[in-house]
Amino acid sequence: MQNHILSLILFTPLVGALVLLFVPKENKDAIRWVANLFSLGGFLVSLPLVPWFWAQMQSPDRFKFIEGTPNNWIPSIGAGYVIGIDGISFLLIMLTTLLGWISILSSWTAIENRVKEYYVWFLILQTGMLGVFMALDFFLFFVFWEAMLVPMYLLIGIWGGPRKLYAAIKFFLYTLAGSVLMLLGILFLYFHHHALTGIYTFSLTALYETAPKIYSDPAYGPTVATLLFFAFFFAFAIKVPMFPFHTWLPDAHVEAPTAGSVILAGVLLKMGTYGFIRFSLPFFPDVLTHGRVRGWMIALSIIAILYGALVSLMQKDMKKLVAYSSVSHLGFCTLGIFALTPLALSGSVLQQINHGISTGALFLIVGILYERRHTREIAEYGGISNVMPVYATITLIMFLSSMGLPLLNGFVGEYYIMLGTFMVSWRWAAWAVPGVVLAAAYLLWLYQRVFFGTVTNPKNEKLHDLTPREVLTFVPLLIMAFWIGLYPKPFFQILEQPVNQIVQNVRNSQAGGTVDAALQPAAEHLKTAPVVTTASVTNPPAAAQSMKGKK
Fold this sequence. Notes:
This protein has 25 helices and two strands. The chain is mainly alpha-helical and about 550 residues long. The chain has one domain (about 100-110, about 165-550). Strands 1-2 form a two-stranded antiparallel ribbon. Helix 5 (about 115-135) runs antiparallel to helix 6, helix 6 (about 140-145) runs antiparallel to helix 8 (about 165-195) and helix 17 (about 340-375) packs antiparallel against helix 19. The longest helix is centred in the N-terminal third of the chain and has 34 residues, at about 165-195.
């Protein structure tokens, strides 16, 4: 089982979708039970991966639990079924299996029409997302990347709100446009590798060796490498989404069913940040360390942080407010990635997990009120804590988590991002700080308007509190929020090896003369700063001495 644990995790939801095909569509309760059992089974199957991965964590191998060999799937083009994980993809896989189960459980009473098709597409979607985080073959990665596009399009377009078709088509076109550019970039890397080695392959480990050489290749040079970087950048930036490619997100979130919004915010958006870490950083280190390119990446991240927070303050619809808050929070994640320090990158990955936990919970919170009242207008509510005390308590905890209160998960990720960014440029960190303050402003203001005071709307007087099933959807998220907030050390230990490898490879590949004078100090810091992710947590004096020695 250990040798094939990734395949078991990957295909359990797909088996559930196939089983549902044989359940009569009229028997809705049976369909719900089967879907929930397989989604829970997908999560339970992934749990043995935790101790097994922990046991192999110190292995020098870059990827663990590798299955398959290169070129074993479609030998004629060099494509293979090769899957494997490192610490980054391990955390994202666990997040996917957890949120997949929670999302399907939350759909029990929310979906009443075309129930069979809904659960089939949702389980197929989960397989596609897991495949993206596991694939170690570029062709296989692209197949999974595109495979998750159709289920999400249908979930929004069939089970969404009044403007569902507009939102679904917009989501599809944006993502497809980025995918086409990424496909062209993949094909270039594929043929460039053949030109250097005489071998046609889509193997990531092989392309990691040859892709960075494009920058110094006399036949291509920095210009072609930069164009390739942006081909991948547009695909990943649209998926995150970074400013100004974010306009599809609020429409998709508002029109999607509650479970669709949870999985979209919790997992699908992380495919963009994962793409930056897995492909953009290792493939194009010289482009990324160029002052102008890196400056633009940082600028777009800071704009997203501030813009998303300011627009959230203006919203009258609760779901749209949470959607724009995702733009702001993911701006912190991309800031941590492009700061290119171990602390910032570790914080970015942890913040991606935190965002999935906190924002996934926020969409569940909004969905519960919508099921009862069929409106998301903030003005329709007030004094809800008087009639739904358990709901109000859970909401307050998740709001505090999302705004980054110490002792909860959001604080740890933001702190590490800020610390790692400050090590490179205090100005970058200073510009990002208002995003933290604004997050507290729009979330506390929302809570005050919806939950405090007296019940002024008669329609809210008889709202019933959370059912046991609804409480169950929040329990794992609450546990994770407090666990990461109180004891994040295991997560940083899991991230230490892959993050150090990525940052060290970026430093080793820096080409002379590519850094603008304005960013020269930052570039020098990248070359000389100690590679530390968990030392400041586990051994502060040693970390301080290391920094002092480097200084």
